[in-house]
Structure formats: C-alpha cells, structure tokens
C-alpha cells in the first residue's frame, strides 16, 4: 500500500504548499534562478512545515526572504548552529521563523523549515540562486530544474540518516508550477529546446541576442524541467568583468571587481588526428533496484557499444554494484575477441537485482588494484545517483585522482548533480546527465572519445594586467582539459580597475599546457571595463567557487579553525550559503506570541520529505591507425543514394525489428573491427543471403566489413556519434588488409563511379 509520506495530513487534507513560481534569467554561460514558494495553513492550529528540495550541486544560494501578509523580511546568513538555535528560540517563544540550510550529507539537498505559521495565514518564500550552465555534447548549455529528489540510499552502518526520503507518485503532488525564462548573450540565440512542452521562443530584438520562453499551459511537475540553450559561435572564448558592490569595503571580495573567463581550448589538429591505442578502461555500472526497466536495458546497450569501440591493445574490466558488487574478471584483462565475447555474455544477463546503491566499496576495490604500466586508467561510472554518502564518495575519487580519470553519468530524473559533477571534477574527467528521452549511448561515446584523447599535463594560467591592478584567482587549478570543452576561471581584481577601464585598458589571460609532448597555449585579451547590470552574479559564483574549494580542501573535517572561520566569514559577507552556514529569518509579530500547540508537517518537492527531524529540531549529523580511416569513410558517404537504390532500402527508417538494427549489426563486429560474412549479417542488414553474397570478392571478411560500413553511413548518419569509433576500427582494419583496392570493386557494384 502506497503511503502519502507527509504530503497529506492525518485528515487526508493537502499539504500547505500551494504553488511554485520560477523565473530563470540566463546571461551567456550562467543562470540566476528565482523560486517563489507559496504556502497556506489550512489547519486550525499553528503549523511548522519542513520542505526538502534539490538544487544543482554547484548552485550558489544567495537570497532568501519571506512575506506574511503585508510584512516582508530578508533572511541573513549566519553560522549554522547559531541559526538553528535562533530558529528554535523563535518557535519556543511563539514567533514565526524560517530556516534554510544545506544538507550535511550532500550539497544538492536543502531543507526549508517554515515555523509557527498561524491558522488561515499565507506565506510567500522567495529563494534565489546562481549557477553555471554545463556544456553538452552538441554545444548546448543545459539548465535543469530538479523536480525529483529520489530516495538516497544509506550504506549499512553509515551515519547521517537524516536525509532519508520517500517517493510519492506525481499524481499526488498537490502544488502547481509556473516557469519562465529570459535568455541573453553577446551571440545570437539559435534555439531553446526542452524535455517539456514550451510556448514558442519570443525574440526581443532583431539580432536575436535576447529571447524569452515559458512552459506551455498544463505542465505537470512530474519530472525535471530541462532547458537546452544553443548560441551561434558557441566556442568563442569570453571574459566578463563585474564591478564590486558599492557598499562593500575595497580589498574584500565583494568590494573589488571580479572577472569570469570562459575558455575553449583548441588542440593542434596534428595531435587530435590520432587517438590513444592504450589504456585501462574500467566500467562501473549501477544495478540497484532503482535502475530497473529501461535504465538497465539502456545500460546494457551502452556497454555493448563501449566494448565494441575499444582499441586493440588496451585493457578493460566491468564492475556492477548494488548492496554488493561483482566484477567480470578478477583484474583487468587485455582486450581481445575472446575477452570481449566473455564480457558481453555476462553483460547480456545483467539485471537490476543487486539491492541498494553502495558505490563506495566497489570504488575502494577498483582503486586498490595496481595500475598497469603504460595503460592510463579511465573509470566510467554509471548511476542514478541515489546515494546518501555523496561527500565520502567524492573524497575517495579525489584521493585517487593522480592514478586515473573519472567519467561519470547521471541516469534518470533526480540523479544527484553533486555526486555526478563532483566525481568528474575531482577525477579530472567529464560529467554527463541522461534524462527523459536522451540516449545514454551517445553521451557515453562522447566521454569515450574524451578518454581516448591524450592526457593534458603541465596546465598553467598566467595573467597580464595593468600595473595598478593585481589578481587573486578564486578558482582551483585546472586539472583536466578536453578538446572543445569549456573551462571557467574566476579571479578577483584588486586596485584601480575602474581607472584602468576608463582608458579602455585590456587584460590578458594565457592558458598553457602540454599535449602528447607538444607545448601549446591559448590566449584571451579582454577589456577591463565592467559589464552593466549583472546583479553581482559573477561575484556570487566566484564566492561560491572559493567556498567550495576551501570546504573540499578541509576534507570536511574542519581541523583548521582558521579555514573554518574564513568560510563562515566569506559566506556571511557574500550572502552565499555554505555547509557551515544557514539563512535565518524571524518575525517578531509585534511581540504577540502565536497561540496554540505547534503542528509539525514534513513536505517534499515531488514527494520527498525529511523523516528524522523532530519538533526539538535535532539533527543527525591514432597509434591505432585510426587516422587512416578518413579516405574510406569519405568515399562511403557519397554512395548513400546508390546503396539505398540497389539494395532496395529507402532513406526512411526501416521496419521495426525485435532489436534495434544498429545494435544488431554492432553486436556482430569482431574486436579487431571487422565483420564476418555469416548468416546473421544479412539479417542485420535486412537482406537475404543471396542479395549479400552475389557480388562478393574472394575475401568474405573484407566484403562483409564494407557492407556494414556502407549500411551505417547510408542509413544511420543520425546516430553517427554512437558508432563512429567502431567504424574507425573497421576502416583501419580494411586499410591493414589492403582493402581499399577491393573497395573499388564495391564502388562499381554500387554504381558510384
């Protein structure tokens, strides 16, 4: 029987949260989000409600205010324990109070306590945060408004059960959502897409650099709201200088100017034309109960593509985990036809039947395995992110960051952005999120391409500024660079920045690094003139970056009291929440205490709530010859129409088969990259044996491989990012067999001239 889990009262009446209004303002790469939560106490007694909701793990919460009737109060940031005591004292004396704090277990979970709301009274809570927008594989910028806070699995024997939450069907969510967005950028806005229905994009000017969009009417808040924003010339590096706060003291972070530099490193083509042919690839797949149905099926298909795309000469292993963990091989093995087939047989049998989500133990086991000489370790982690010990997992990845790169994938609605982004950041890799109708395969293959890129070393950033301006970098050192991927740097500019900008002075930032033994550098010259009307967004994100760096540097132990004091001081001065602070607002009600016993409720965003908190408010605390494939593939591309005509294919999607035709064809490929001319191949191509074999040359394997490549380029160009690496292997194998001459006969057969 499904319990309502705090969404309904003992009388089966709705919870007091009536509606949520969200306004999003996107400025180029960053977003400001304003959420208004409207409450109403329909009880006949004063009410205390605890509202648990998710935010992006790297969000900087910078404003919290409450309005009751005609009275409004803006909350202040205070040290967390002091804020809790002030909240408890206010409730004890019958005053209205509001407390907003970050979870002790994960920075992407916040709890909002609404205390002593009088009978029949309404309250409006305004919450504001700023966040960076992640760059996707297709250069889109992703914004996600989480609707789901999935149950966070607590490993056996772990502490901190205070974030236990329970799911509730979307049909029971008793509040509504309105959502609107305004987008502006120096570059034209190409389009805005979403997993939810949107009203048409409205441009606000002729050059299309400003636009608005909102959710279509009738939206049910039953899934994350995801926006993908596309700009023209998205890879252009930029710098935004923001003037300090006039009321703040010069020399402090909020009083000085802050610059945000967005870099897109462009690696030399001579280096990028070859991909690594070595490496130890370790795949860690979530098989907990929450990964059941389509998630698990998609994970199996993704592992098939990954295994088929690995280069010869590498090593690999596959781990899966739930309440316990399993591995296919005792240790990583060399990639061959035999080991690939053995792994795939096990993958085909994988089900989401391993219980809970204990990711820490398999990670410890993987890191305990000695690294293989000359085989850089690349770890791929796939999970729906429903774990309760997020910080402990991230700390473990960070501790082992010198021995591997970590590529993480958040699967489904509610995946913890703090976990997924944190693992990739500390592991020097890349994070991906798979939601709604996203195909896991495409995003996994993009990360594999990143993993095959040479490791960038000796990364440094230098600044060239006017003599009256000094720089203090707020961001941690850059530890990972990938072709075409953005790197953001925040820095505090102290001195006469205003005077320098009046003379149109410039600054210059230089990114230097070494790639495959080749020293490289990228430079960006920028004006020191402050941007207008930025709302201190860059300052807030810079403060958040520095706060997170200090928190992570202390490994959450806080033995260094000076660092702890600096975090609290920076949090209070900037108005940005941290793990050590909280927002607190207290109404004095003109000295009149609210009468009646206090009724306690637990509420959640999309059906989650905090169970452990009580009325007393206690807390539980191309060496692979990949470069030779280009001639072959270019020739294949031009024969699409002839291929479709001769073999009776149309450019339209073929009739549905029991299995995805692409995966059916991929499953037949050998580890070396070739296909065999056996009875299964014509079936995968949708043809008979006679049609496939009537014009074959003497070498059947070459003929089969050519047919497979032609089929891919003829009918599956829309999913090329999923199969291009395995096609590269096939083309390289053809060249090694001197298959290009035999390929000419195929051109004659397909009448391509």
Give a summary of the structure in a few sentences.
With 753 residues, this protein is of the alpha+beta class. It folds into four domains: 6-234 and 578-587, tricorn interacting facor f3 domain (Immunoglobulin-like), CATH 2.60.40.1730; 258-263 and 454-529, no CATH class; 275-452, 3-Layer(aba) Sandwich (Rossmann fold), CATH 3.40.50.410; 662-737, no CATH class. The chain is globular and about 90 Å long.
Structure write-up:
- With 753 residues, the protein is of the alpha+beta class.
- 27% of the residues lie in helices and 29% in strands.
- It folds into 4 domains: 6-234 and 578-587, Sandwich (Immunoglobulin-like); 258-263 and 454-529, no CATH class; 275-452, von Willebrand factor, type A domain (Rossmann fold, 3-Layer(aba) Sandwich); 662-737, no CATH class.
- The strands form 6 sheets. The protein has an 8-stranded mixed beta sheet. Strands 19, 20, 21, 22, 23, 24 and 25 form a 7-stranded mixed beta sheet that branches. The chain has a 6-stranded mixed beta sheet with strand order 6-31-7-8-3-32.
- Helix 8 crosses helix 18 (720-736) and helix 10 (537-553) packs antiparallel against helix 11.
